[in-house]
Amino acid sequence: MTTGTTRPLRGAEHEILLALRLHGPSTRADLVQRTGLSRATVSTATARLLTADRITSAGTAPARRSIGRTPERLALSISGAVILGVEFGHRRVTVTAMDEAHYVEGSATAVYEQDTSWPHRIRHAFELLDGLGVPDRRAVIAVGLGVPGRIPDRERVTDSLVATFASRVAREVRVDNNARLAGLAESVWGAGRDLQSFIYLRLMDGVGGALVTHGTIYDGLHGTAGEFGHITVDPAGPECRCGKRGCLEAYVSRERILEATAHRDLDVLREVLDAGDARRREIVAGAGRRIGVVLANTCTSLDVEGVVLGGDLVTLGRHLTAPLEAAFSENLMPARAHRIALHPGRIRQVDGALGGIALVLRDHTIALSRPDSPTGAGYPALAKPSECTVSDRKGRLSS
């Protein structure tokens, strides 16, 4: 018996295009599940879309232990244009270009000092774009920008960035907190792809995150939801850059941990921890325990399915995550402890930039094709793959 809903064919085609925009390459069975359409309707609609060159074959799905033909995956036909994701972090800028079918065309990163001026950060970004050849050889559909949430004069900075990229790269520019965008990337291509709702925590120079539910970031009333780094863990604790005292970020940011352990590099610190330095191990373990308590309390309040951990500090490995996991489990309500899982993030380095691309993919007002494209009717807007390996020149994020 065929399950799903039979709808007018044109409407079915629209829903399939939306699903492919949101999730990337998908089998027909995936499309049945994601759209709620019947198998017969999906089969007929995809045949019409293939004939019209609106979609194309993306090869076969990864092999599974089953009998029968390996299913074909379908993807949006590409127009020759790209979407850009740009993340301006505290110490680096990352640029990633992706086409409509979720193929990564290129990615590059430049490192700078934390006190680097914004004009110089922007110059680094455009140098990376020049290196990728994006402005010269490709039309850019839109740009998604990630910017830290706690920086001086943030509104003026973001307005300037949007104006600069709109005038020099693409008319359509979207911007959001870079930690929130990293969480969105994990929901589309990473560890959160199979979770209906989760907390994403990014442990970097700052500590931020997102509440993601059904593939969407919860913004909150003023667009600042997800500031988990500014939950108070000790009212009498050290001053935080947000103006309060004793915030989680004041204890567990990259800068604080390196300062407390008298190191300047996380990789070197990991080597020292592996060698058995007891004092430094306890400093890192203490940070892990504080994170675990905050996450447990947040999960108790929000009743989410899981937690995804990202950011550079995760490179400290079990020295950080083992005490974190123990504190997390101990501070959850016993009835919920077995139902909420901790997951390491699967996207590194480019997570914020990919999140900028996901931000564009979810904006229904942005058409995914160039006006001069052979398939220039434009795709309706919306995105998802698995554990990510991002490579230059046609590396695909695949599920």
From TrEMBL:
Keywords: Kinase, Transferase. GO terms for molecular function: kinase activity. InterPro entries: ATPase_NBD, ROK, ROK_cs, WH-like_DNA-bd_sf, WH_DNA-bd_sf. It comes from the Bacteria. Belongs to the ROK (NagC/XylR) family. This is NBD/HSP70 family sugar kinase.
